[in-house]
Amino acid sequence: MANETVFVRYPGNPVITARAVPRANSIHNSAIVKRGDGDYAGVFRVDEISMHFTLHTGFSADGLSWEIDPEPLTMESDDPEVFVTNQSYDPRLTRLDDTYYLTWCNATPQGPAIGLATTKDFRHFRQWDNPLPPANRNCVLFPRKIGGDYAIYHRPSDRGHTPFGDIFYATSPDLVHWGRHRFVFGPEMGWQSLKVGPGPHPIETDDGWLLIYHGAWRTCSGYLYCVGGALLDLDEPWKVLYRTRDYLLAPSEIYERVGDVPNVCFPASAVLEGDRLRLYYGCADTCISMAEAKLADIVGFVKEHSFRKEQTTVWR
Ligand code: BMA
């Protein structure tokens, strides 16, 4: 395969296409988890044929054959001021104790804005107060508290196809009040020279938090979205220990190269299966694929293919 590193693509890719949902133009950057009883559930980004972006739940016995709810999910909230739009996209899911935390992006008149909701059963979702002001496009919660607080990685943005983007860290004692904002890392030369954003929830390893992220590069005819990895300090997760200089995954297959937005691999969920990690990623803003690798091999790759300090050049 052209550019495979440690990840091996599932031969049946793409795993989910627009055919799974009536009136869908595409289904891509989506959040998938494996539940306690061994089945899989997810919140999916569906771009409808009206080009409204909606979130739908989906269920699967094996993570490969999916039933996607044809209707968008609904949220309950006590707060009439929470962001509600007809453009909701790029969900992430994190399990913490017995609750799943959904973060996603809403297109609001003030720009992209992060939504936060919780569910235990994927039937009832409770939306919390707006965690961050616009403009912010990517947000994911850590799977455990850090120093007694909830913690997120997020990516401030602008209103358009943002030509910049650094990853930040923030914490909250109660999921409502967010602070202690810390810069984590920004673009670097090469495939991640335009912007970076957090992907699936961080995964705790002996070598630090593994964060799989996307990096974008501007080509002469558009953008290229690749997948990278970083290892971050377990107690102070804004401190970068290692961060990939070489990408972990990049568009090479026809379903990654061709679609509504060509040349996009957008990592959105990571599911651990024993010592292996399944990465689900959006392809060309059109469909969803899966690639697998041993967790230890991913960590090894990140360490081995990391920038050395003297190679790091901030590229703005
Ligand atoms: C980003 C997000 C993603 C999308 C990507 C490529 O800015 O909007 O939803 O996959 O662009 O179009």
Percent helix range: under 10%
Which homologous superfamily in CATH is the superfamily?
A: Glycosyl hydrolase domain, family 43
pLDDT < 50 runs, ≥5 residues:
none
CATH class: Mainly Beta
Description:
With 316 residues, this protein is mainly beta. The protein has one domain: Tachylectin-2, Chain A (5 Propeller). Helices cover 4% and strands 47% of the residues. The protein has two helices and 22 strands. The protein has helices at 254-257, 295-304; strands spanning 8-9, 24-34, 40-48, 53-60, 67-68, 75-76, 88-96, 99-108, 111-119, 125-127, 136-141, 150-156, 167-172, 179-185, 195-198, 203-205, 208-219, 222-232, 240-243, 265-273, 276-283, 287-294. The strands form five sheets. It has a five-stranded mixed beta sheet, with no helix packed on it. Strands 15, 16, 17, 18 and 19 form a five-stranded antiparallel beta sheet that branches. A four-stranded antiparallel beta sheet has the order 1-22-21-20. A hairpin with a 5-residue loop joins strand 9 and strand 10 (125-127). It is globular and about 50 Å long. It starts with 7 loop residues before the first strand and ends in a 12-residue tail after the last helix. The model has no long low-confidence stretch (mean pLDDT 95). The structure holds beta-D-mannopyranose (BMA). Beta-D-mannopyranose is lined by residues 29, 89-90, 161, 225, 261, 264, 266, 282, 285.
